[in-house]
Each structure stands twice: as structure tokens, then as C-alpha cells.
Specification:
There is one protein chain. By secondary structure, the chain is mainly α. The protein has one domain (2-172): TIM Barrel (Alpha-Beta Barrel). The protein contains 8 helices and 5 strands; from the N terminus they run H-E-E-H-H-E-E-H-E-H-H-H-H. The strands form 2 sheets. It has a 3-stranded parallel β-sheet, covered by helices on one side. Strands 2-4 form a two-stranded parallel ribbon.
Length: 183
């Protein structure tokens, strides 16, 4: 799977499309639809590193792919938050241990797994975790709600400005016609 993913990412990049590796931490072990339900994996770190995360590591290490975070809780790292808004996963694993410096995006925030956690809380937690882009696809009206949540949290000093500045630098590093920052 890692070889296919890398080849696909390379093909997209050759065609001028920035590839996106998704849906981290992987959905192969998940037996519910995160569009509707909260989901989690009980797999241990060794198992995840040796199997589930190999394609992500290979694609991210060999391309300028973005990384899309799914709404799946990895109990071995953060039993309280899905990957899409877990600081332990984004800062600790992806940006820390993996040293990934590219763009991180959430899966659509208009999904049942998010509503189980709380929409505004997910917006704020994602930004504080260092996620660069928050995806809102199925209900465009939720964009305004997300902006209101973020602005309210920013005014209440509930969003780390340093994390936002780091994210802004990564996003500014994208060139039109584009290439993502090197991982």
C-alpha cells in the first residue's frame, strides 16, 4: 500500500496537484462511519507504527503531500481527542517524532464524530494542535460558525497565537501553482 500511495502522490505532483495523504491514523481498523459516529482504535503504538502508519510515513517522506487527519481517536496516544484535533498527535507525533513540516488539514468538520465531541471545541482544539486548514465541505454555512468559534476563542485567549503564527508561516510557504513546504 505504501508503494502505491507514493506512486499516486508522485503522479499527482507531476500533474501539478498537491497530493494529500488521508485519513490519518487510517480507517482500516475502524468499523463505523465517522460521518455519523465517533470512532477509535485500540491498536498499540508498535502495531500502528509497523503497519497502519507505514504508507503515511512513506508518502510524507517522499513527497510534498499534505496530511489529512481523520476523526479517529488513537487511544495509545490521546484517548480523549480524535486525531483531527489532538495536540498530542499533531505536535507530539506528526510534527515532533515524525518531523513533518508540511500542511495538516482536518477531515470535514461537519461530521457526526465531531458533533459527538463538540463543534466549537473541535475548531479551537484543532487550531491549538497546529492544524493548518480546517475543512468544512458538506454544509458551507458551518464556515461562519467555525469562524465565530475561532474568533471568540481568540478574543478570550483560548487559542495559542504562536501556534497560529507557525501555521500562517507554513501556509505562506505554499507557492501558487504549487508546491507545499518540504516535509
Amino acid at each position: 500500500m505504501a508503494t502505491v500511495g507514493s506512486a499516486y502522490a508522485q503522479g499527482l505532483a507531476d500533474a501539478g496537484v498537491i497530493p494529500t495523504a488521508k485519513h490519518f491514523p487510517g480507517l482500516g481498523r475502524i468499523r463505523v462511519d465517522t460521518h455519523i459516529f465517533a470512532a477509535g482504535t485500540m491498536a498499540g503504538m508498535a502495531e500502528l507504527q509497523q503497519a497502519d502508519w507505514v504508507p503515511f510515513r512513506q508518502v510524507l517522506g517522499n513527497s510534498d503531500a499534505f496530511l489529512m487527519l481523520g476523526h479517529v481517536t488513537v487511544t495509545a496516544l490521546d484517548p480523549s481527542n480524535p486525531a483531527s484535533h489532538s495536540k498530542r498527535i499533531v505536535q507530539g507525533l506528526i510534527r515532533g517524532a515524525w518531523d513533518y513540516r508540511g500542511i495538516v488539514i482536518t477531515d470535514d468538520l461537519v461530521m457526526g464524530a465531531i458533533y459527538h465531541h463538540g463543534f466549537c471545541q473541535a475548531v479551537v482544539d484543532s487550531l491549538n494542535a497546529g492544524v493548518d486548514l480546517l475543512l468544512i465541505a458538506y454544509d458551507g454555512q458551518q464556515y461562519y460558525r467555525a469562524m465565530a468559534c475561532a474568533l471568540d476563542a481568540l478574543h478570550r485567549s483560548r487559542i495559542d497565537r504562536g501556534t497560529l503564527e507557525d501555521s500562517a508561516r507554513r501556509l505562506e510557504g505554499l507557492r501558487l501553482g504549487g508546491e507545499a513546504p518540504t516535509s
